[in-house]
Write a structure and sequence with these properties.
With 454 residues, this protein is an alpha/beta fold. Helix content is 35%, strand content 20%. The chain is globular. The relative contact order is 0.12. The model is unreliable at 1-17 and 63-68 (pLDDT under 50). The structure holds FE(8)-S(7) cluster and iron/sulfur cluster. The site of iron/sulfur cluster has 11 residues, from strand 2.
Length: 454
Amino acid sequence: MAGKEKGAAACRFGTGPKVPESVWDKVSNHPCYSEDAHYFYARMHLPVAPGCNMECNYCNRLYDCPNESRPGVSSEILTPEEAAYKVGVIAGEIPELTVVGIAGPGDPLANPRRTFKTLALVKKKYPDIRLCLSTNGLMLPDYLKTIKALDVNHVTITINMVDPKVGREIYDWVRHKGKKYRGEEAAALLLDKQMTGLSLLKENEILCKVNSVMVPGINDQHLAEVSQKVKSLGAFLHNIIPFIPCSGSKFGDQGVRAPSAKERKVLQDLCESQINMMRHCRQCRADALGLLAEDLSQQHTREVFLKQPIRYDRERRRQVHLEMETKVQAIRAAKELLSQREELKPILVAVATKGGSMVNQHFGHAREFSIYESLGKEIKFVGARNVQQYCQGPVTCGDEPWVLDKVVEMLSDCQALLCVRIGPGPRQALETAGIKVFETYDLVINAVQKIASR
Ligand code: CLF
Ligand code: SF4
């Protein structure tokens, strides 16, 4: 659908290199593979894969909290039939849904029967939906033919190391074909399967994104090497995600800390010279649903969706996608215009946004700020930072000053903040910290450009 008609601007990945049109067609409405698409198109994870064939020292799948957003967490496990039914209901209710992925809460390929049955049902019943998988890669070479036959065009492999000596610190054990491996042997086996799987994906023209969990003191100094290696084997995109400390995981219990947003950005900037870098990941739950920046999973539980009728309407969905495509094109046109203007001041800007690539949210309502960087003639999205919502309503707003302190600290490396409205208290706190505040309602690109040109 998208991408056929446009010239050079349409074939760029974010601010990165151009990609061939055949690849562009696969990414243009995938919210994870295209930064522009993530403002408009939704994804849904189907939690059908509970088991795993290895133990990562950063993982704890036993803990479930509906308010927690991180991989491995799901409030329920669905059968393949329930999952396919849910796709029918949600694709009707949220026509912006373009991608259905299986990402756990265990590993999809450690649950092959449930995973492939689900994918086959969705492919048969809802052919305009893209299929996506996220795996540790251990069984990828074994199941590649099945993945290809099911038209799964996007596969993510989590690759945290390309050296078993680093790997032995990350993985407790790996179970492969009935045998359990530990230490360096386990890491070497996993690495071999991941590298083979990645090469096979490339050979079969299946787009591969590599996720790497950045763990300070364990693999943070090693991930540039990982980036280089996966690029050489044909990965399309690299996504460096921060370790989230959680009790019950080995690293969490040992007190290993999360990397700061600034440390992560330094690493992403370093790796971006060699590979397309994903910066808009929200580390979704295994039952996530909606735009990446929102999660509607708790509103669409089994109890709710099984009582709803399927209203999947392919023609209506096509119309909605055409409207979305027009909006995506407007953003690309604004980016293209930038390249014809004067150099911008290099600044970091925090934006309060509810989506649509617009400055369209009050400061006090933001649960995350999108961070944009102007550099040369480009403005790029460099990450989303979660905060506690400052204003919970007119009666209690401002009652907890430490919330504001935390927000200011989180944005301390930014020179400006854009929002629709802000009260005098927060404005003063931000400006005292050297963050200029601008109230506006505009396309983010245009608003940042105005500040960076002043
Ligand atoms: Fe899901 Fe992953 Fe497919 Fe996207 S998520 S399986 S590629 S449809 Fe996306 Fe979520 Fe980040 Fe994953 S924001 S955690 S990268
Ligand atoms: Fe957890 Fe995924 Fe590692 Fe399995 S592969 S232990 S589900 S993080």
